Amino acid sequence: MSEIALQVNFGLNIALLLMLVAIGLAIARTRSLLAAILLMGVYSLASAVWLIVMDAADVAFTEAVVGAGISTVVLLGAILLVRAGPVRHNWRMTIVPAVLVLGVGGLLVYAVTGLPEFGDPASPTNAHVGRRYLIQTPDEIGVPNVVTAVLASYRGFDTLGETVVVFAAGIGVALMLGFGPRSNLPPAPAATGDHHVVLRVTAKLLIPLIALFAFYVQFHGDLGAGGGFQAGVILAVAPILHALVFGLRGTIAALPVRAVRSIATMGVLLYSGVGVVCMINGGGFLDYDYLFPPSVEAMIPPGLMGDPDHAHHWGQHFGIFFIELGVLLTVAATMVTIFYGFAGRAAEEPGAST
Amino acid sequence: MLLAAGVAGLVVAMTMMIWRAIVGPSQYDRMLAANSFGTKIVLLIAVIGYLSGRPAFLDIAIVYALINFVTTIALMKFFRYRTLSRPLGTEAKDG
Amino acid sequence: MGDVLHVVGGGLVVAGALLTLLGGVGVLRFPDVYTRIHAASLTDTGGATLVLLGLALISGLTLETLKLGFVWAFVMLTTPAAANALANAAFSAGHTPRIGAFQIMKGVAASEARPDTQRRETSDDDESAAP
Amino acid sequence: MILFEALYVAPPALTAQAPILVIAGPLIGACAAALSPGGRTAWMVSVLTAAFALWMAVAVAGEVAREGVIDYALGGFAPPMGIALRIDALGATMALLVASIGVMGALYSGHALESEVKAEKRTLFQSGYLLCLAGFLGLVFTGDAFNAFVFLEVSSIGTYALVAVGEARDRRALPAAFSYLIFGTVGATLYVLGVGFLYAATGTLNMVDMAMRLATLGDNSAVQAGLAFVVAGLGVKAAMFPLHGWLPGAYAGAPSLVSMFLAATATKAAIYLIIRFVFDVFPEGEFGEVFLSWILAPLAAAAVIICSVQAIFENEVRRILAFSSVAQVGFILLGVSLATPAGLSAGMFYLVAHALMKGALFMAVGAFAVSVRARTVEDFSGIAREAPWSAAAFGVGAASLAGVPLTMGFLAKWSLVSAALQAGEIWIVAVLAIGSLLTLIYVGRMLEVMFFRAPVRGAERAREAPVGVLAPLFVLAGLSLWFGVDATLPASMANASASALVGAAP
Amino acid sequence: MNVAVTHFNYLAAVVLMMIGLYVLFSTGNLIKRMIGLALFQTSTALFYISLGKVSGGTAAIRIYADSPEARALAAQLDPAYVQQFGVGGVVYSNPLPHVLILTAIVVGVATLSVGLSIAVRIREAYGTVEAGEIEAVARVDAAGAGRGP
Predict the structure, then answer these.
(1) pTM score, two decimals?
(2) Is domain E3-53+94-147 given the CATH code 1.10.287.3510 in the classification?
(3) E136 touches chain B (CB under 8 A)
């Protein structure tokens, strides 16, 4: 049992990377945009499995929901709006990029030869800061998932920045697509076999389950893979599925555009608000140990939260809880905003649709 | 050992799906391949979880199953209606 | 007892993987979209059932079993629905099946509709957004 | 920096938190702007937030002047475990510059947006503007290589859309924004890649820790490539010569607020980060010297010559200014490439000077745009008669750009030349001379048309811009003049920055 | 061992980077360009994650040292190896690259959506998403620049 697991791990690594390269080449080769998008979806799925093989469970989670889910939907929305024909190829446009790419590739290969061997536990990467996170997290943060601890606590400022990037993307898409002509298409013409009872029933069953699952991922994030980002995107999938199956108009009626934008803003405010509260209580920005004033902290019996062997980290636990909630709100709302932008904008030539 | 054989079988099946996704010939074949690839990946993740001794990653498999469905619906709407905003089917009153 | 369950479970996993593999062969070898959908969706659900059942036997009665149940439920819910949607989309887009009685519905002469391995299937690679 | 030493502008408790407040202020302000009910409220939020950031930046500058270097550990985790802000004289100077331009831009946006951005988009636009400001301030303060990437993206993602909003005036803004996005993302990704190689070699992301560990490492291909990718990636953002393709279109197409803000800060922040890596992170040694004198200096010289010539042959005012920006980046990098205290100081001085004059120039063009849709140089014929005040400010900025005595531009060019002479690099002096001459040509052409020609008959009549636009414009132009006469403040800041980098005062 | 084997992951990432860059620069179609850009960005994820993999390691979710799960994981490896590189009896992979790549993935989807929305607006303004055709229209725009009457 023991050796085999490692060998399978190694074999999967090679096999999946070769798959990724093959898919990448196919993407480069195809002239159909839709095929490229489908292949991108497959690429994301394959890379997510590879991430699991590489022990990056949280990243695999994110890649699955973002890469295979949201990205595909957004890309589909985009090609519907641009109504592009096949990609044209011009041989003159291949030589210069090829030379450029080969140059960059050569430099990269040269650089790669200077890296430590793959999987080396003593490489600087794995021996220095990375290892210290693993050792110190139980004492300093007290959550089992070290990725969550690093993400939300040690490098919480990065995550704030990342949340802001998502928020900025929401603003960007809203500025581009949120105003102007809106989709107002007549009902679909009746066609043979156009009942979709199966899908409607399935969707009806799934939507609440998806939302429930999102909250599970959210609150389970300290203990296992998952967290605000993943949960946010999964939560956004629920209204997106609703819009896909029951029509965008109903979804917007339930979740108005302005409200969604406000929720996105609230998320960032909540996150930075936690930082400010820590600051007011005498700590640094995002120093969750100061999230509660000492008087409150003193009232909590020891050992209430987490592992009794280690010091309890009331502030850290709640700090992570609140900022992950902020991330959830911003990410979910922004993803819905982006979807509204792409799905709600009228395609120009409605006559061209079949 | 048996699980490893299962992994190998799934990987071969995945490679076949990738081949179908690359050669097409029609877009529906690609969609089929992508969808089926997703299902195999769900299984693969589950098996890997048990093989590596960390079955807790089944959550990720659940997410895959969900996302796969949503993507397929979006693709279907793409083909059927050429817009993402219209409801499915004709019985919907909101249009 | 536990070992027996492990072996039985492992056997089921392998059986499921083989079924999936068989479906893969079908997807590669079958002549048109509909038969390929048939091969893939049937073996996917069957293979998933076997694999997940095998894993459930290995894990015994834990939280993981519940999660496996969820995975199974989702796969059983979504794979047929997706296959249905796919076939529906392909059919309404005018893809004619290359074998079977559907030909008549589309008004194609039965002689033309015979599976013809010599003829290359039309590729709509070049019509991307407008099939 | 000596001037700041006695400056206590905030209570001690606030001063201690000032480094993070400089960044967090605009972030929170951006949320408030996005939530505000209308463009007017959003504008007020924007002005207040930018003013707050400037206030905090001044507090930080005072603290830096007294302490030398400030470290601020975020989340209470000391680096390299946590992310730390690290501010020295250079960082404080940059933050002051960015925050001041930010305030000017925010003031200016009150009226400028009315003619350029649709009413319903203004709240989101202000929000994007503040995010961009926060991004640049974070970029300047952070001491963590990966955190810098995050802030690079914070400042960029919204900006792409802000540039594209310029479509209301000129639809070419859209492809320009798209190509800005492509270039910017490739640049940022190359930067991440470079940081990845450095991380692989050192195991840390904190710049100070990285520098310490790099110093003990021998020659390593990963480290060399890491430097190359970091500089190439940032070079795209800084519009370093062969990587500047995105800049002319983006500056020409964007709403004038965005053009002005980007021209004054975006490339500067990236240059700042390049300086940070080359002088602070990379170990002193042959590799860095080869890089500076054989790659950076020739490229900068090429930028000065080629882009100045391009500017001469360009016909649209905004594009002239944009090409001029690439050329001026070349001037700055020439100073930096000398790697002497005098050279760095001159480069920094030039950077500040260029930010002020380009800000004034783009703002003046925006002031004209309030009433007319002028694009080419000919369109601006005689505009000095119709809008004398805006034109005067434009004239001051242009004079500074050309290096007319009694402007900051003159002192900047002068200090560059003397630094090059001091370092014995005669060819750089020659390049500077040719570049200045070329600058004079395109500046002279614009000024001649504006001031000495009659307005084209039948064209729309320009009106003078409202006071809300003129006030920040005059501040920027006035600063260019004032620092041209009394340069104590910027010169002392530039000197302090240079000595923070290479250790010795010139 | 051969570099091609010991550095296989990095080389695969490099190949994908090259493919992404090639797609980005060899096509005039803006949507395809965004796909190339996404590919290029994702490949950095491959690079970072490969850096953080420790052979024999497991995901960085701490397991109690004396749990059966931890013992089963440790049994797969050489005890000396676990002793030297393990934390609490279990060898974990490095969590830091995972955190960084989470950020990078999110930045990637943000870039993708903003880029695509600009591409959509370009289509609305120019009627095409082919760079060559857009440039042709833009040249006409530039020629027609003027202070309108």
Answers:
(1) 0.93
(2) yes
(3) no
